[in-house]
TrEMBL record:
Residues spanning the membrane: 14-35
Record-linked CDD domains: S26_SPase_I
Substrates-to-products reaction catalysed: Cleavage of hydrophobic, N-terminal signal or leader sequences from secreted and periplasmic proteins
Taxonomic lineage from the root: Bacteria, Bacillati, Bacillota, Bacilli, Bacillales
EC number: 3.4.21.89
Keywords, sorted A to Z: Hydrolase, Membrane, Protease, Transmembrane, Transmembrane helix
Protein name: Signal peptidase I
Top EC group: hydrolase
Length: 179
């Protein structure tokens, strides 16, 4: 009888350790997220399931998840880093006065026949500041005509960022790494 109790206790300990490790990993390192909406089309589609890396530092053009003002998590692309100037003119992105290539927009730009994909703006027009403030980033959705992003909510505090995401794991037939 004692051997049965011992085996039960060993299985219970193993299960508790596994659940504890899974909780720690999910809370501090990786977390799943479901894309909700069309703001990141064509890069991401509504319903895509992704893994968020909570240990990464945001870099330009990374796709990040952050806590938005509406008590909701948004998924957008980092365009401006602290100290950057950001401007869109004639459907071309300028960061710190230099043209930035955005190959993830090529598909949408080729389909846009009724004006620019991204209307002209400067960071100063949106936020009242010439540069992205320290400790903050500026984000845009890839579906520029239908995205509630930095043009509407301003800059995002870095401590509101949940993490970076690159890996779509569902739907299974569309598993991929996105840029």
């Amino acid at each position: 009888m004692a051997e049965g109790k011992n085996e039960f206790w060993e299985w219970t300990k193993a299960l508790l350790i596994a659940v504890g490790l899974a909780a720690l990993i999910r809370y501090f390192i990786f977390a799943p997220i479901v894309v909700d909406g069309l703001s990141m089309m064509p890069t991401l589609e509504s319903g895509d399931r992704m893994i968020v890396n909570k240990m990464s530092e945001p870099d330009r053009f990374d796709i990040v998840v952050f806590h938005a003002p509406e008590n909701k998590d948004y998924i957008k692309r980092v365009i401006g880093l602290p100290g950057d100037t950001v401007e869109y003119k004639d459907d071309v992105l300028y960061v710190n006065g230099k043209v930035q290539d955005e190959p993830y927009l090529d598909e949408y730009k080729s389909q846009a026949t009724d004006g620019p994909l991204t209307p002209d703006f400067t960071l100063a027009e949106i936020t009242g500041q010439e540069t992205v403030p320290e400790g903050e980033i500026f984000v845009l959705g890839d579906n520029r005509r239908f995205s509630k992003d930095g043009r509407h909510i301003g800059t995002v505090k870095i401590d509101e960022i949940v993490g970076e995401t690159k890996f779509v794991y569902w739907p299974f037939d569309q598993i991929r790494v996105v840029d």
